[in-house]
Amino acid sequence: MKQFAVYGLLALFSICAFGRRLPYPAQVVAKRSFLHQTAEITPTTIFTPSANGNYRIEVYVSIDASPSCKSDTEVSPDVYWTDEFRSKDETAGGAVGCGPGQGSLVFHVKGGTPIQISAGYGGGTSNDSYDMFVTVVEE
Prior knowledge:
Blueprint: H1 2-18, E1 27-37, E2 41-47, E3 53-63, E4 74-82, E5 87-91, E6 95-96, E7 100-109, E8 115-122, E9 130-138
Antiparallel strand pairs: 1-9, 2-8, 3-7, 3-9, 4-5, 4-6, 4-8
């Protein structure tokens, strides 16, 4: 019986010590998929926060891996946002060649201003295509 009680206390301790969660878990606020793209994507609003805050954008790009895909195909996602001082933009990962690529970027956004994404595309043939998946998380 003592052994059972000891195991119970150990289990309770493990849950309390290691099972803690953040006081405010990160929350997905927007998702967007761009499927079967064959050209650049112009700046597109993904999310507009109502208040100032820190955000993380995660981007996954998959280039068509069919036999027609050229090894120099390139997709480069750019993120646009505005903080309290000025508008900014930065590349968030990307993919080169006939395969996937990913990236993430953390930034501060002024409330009421949009978070946008675009994608540069080049080097491929007219048969090449790509998919881009975007997730915005409030930190």
